[in-house]
Amino acid sequence: MHLRMCEMASDWVRMVEDNYEVVGIYLSPVSDAYKKSNLAAAQHRIRMCQLAVEDTTNCVMVDPWEATQPRYVPTAQVLDHFRQEINETLGGIESVESPERKQARVALLCGADLMHSMSTPGLWSPDDLDRILGGDGGLYVVERHGTDLEEAKEALSKWTEHISVIPQGVPIDLSSTKVRLFLHKKMSVRYFVPNPVIEYIIENSLYGTSKEDQANQVQLVKGKAASSSSLA
Predict the structure, then answer these.
(1) Which keywords annotate this record (predicted)?
(2) Which of 3, 126, 138, 167 has its CB 3.0 to 4.6 Å from that of 107, i.e. a possible disulfide?
(3) Right CATH number for 2-166 from 3.90.226.10, 3.30.360.10, 3.40.50.620, 3.40.630.30?
(4) Edge to edge, what strands does the sheet with 108-111 contain?
């Protein structure tokens, strides 16, 4: 679903906000210091993200900086990191129209549940919200089934012009939590995540999978892919 969100955001910018051009989308896994239940080690999550984007063609990349930090890094600081690396270290974005580099606008792409949390009093600091939503920042929010954004929009009305709500078009009620639950129950997650990621999860016994599952599961993934190709 994270990869699907990248596609929806790219379409939205191209079709609705054509004064911008998407030049890069980064997946930034959280560090181990986040201490979330059932969270795999950062090294595994970085590698799974890398495997997931290997075949993508829409500028989706993985940045390991946040995941390798020894402490939890707030979202605002992660975005500051991208701004520094892109606009200061690299000097901005190359343009085919001009020899001068342009400063990139760095925005946060998220699901509706995260935006809703931003409207909860005391959960996010006002300074962090201003750094995320103000100035050259912004928020691209993909609608999610069961999450009402009207209340959140009202609470964040100060930054309305910097918030873009992207309709799903085809409702997809999928989350990382549900994928992990399927794995714990020994149920198939094929077509939920890319095959190389499924193989990596099983090979490293992540999310409740075991070495006993490996032979059958990996053979299932590879065997069905080969059968589909031959039938086609």
Answers:
(1) ATP-binding, NAD, Nucleotide-binding, Nucleotidyltransferase, Pyridine nucleotide biosynthesis, Transferase
(2) 138
(3) 3.40.50.620
(4) 108-111, 139-142, 163-166
